[in-house]
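Page 47, continued from p. 46.
Same chain as before, 221 aa.
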Amino acid sequence: MVKKPSGELQIVPLILMDRDGVLCDNRSNGIRSYSKFKLVPGLSKSLKKLGSRSLRVGIITNQPDISRGLLRRSELKKMNDAIIRAARKAGIGPERMTIKVCPHTNEDDCDCRKPKTGLIDRVMKEFGLRPGTTRFYIIGDKLTDLQTLENYYRQELLPRGIPRKSMTTILLEWEYGDQSSERRFMTVGNARVVPDFRLGSLESAVNLIMGLERGGPERKS
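Result:
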């Protein structure tokens, strides 16, 4: 929980990001070794823009190859450490960024595999954030990423009377994104998941968020 100098509660922007296809190259069969890991061009530049604001960044990623025995945790740590180094270089310290990983497959029936909301819960807990004083953004290259925040809205925000405008979903459609059939519209209950914005780069997504935080363009319907 963050307070203003006056003691009033402050609204904290939380930017949730997928990892593969947003911060690093995405491969159809997964990234299974650090030697194949490649950060997207301009990552430090994009993160630097976030470093100038008092917001939080939560990277939430499914890595089922751990459970399948195809990805070593030591290799995963090397990859995530590379992202952390880029963030530190951009001025984002550990108190403002965290990486949460789901190592499970669908068969494990966990509570953290996206589009379930367990990873968001862990990010919120680590930062000490509350739904009513958090403004949510999510950046993903698949509709399942965006569905995670839509699920969180239905489970945690809507029952508290928190309006949908407290969150913004951004789908990246670019060369690092997954062009598979998983891009189809997905459903949450009876609602279709439709991105608030479709953009062509991480930098454009960050620029959009910064503009919204300054009271810029309204969310698309």
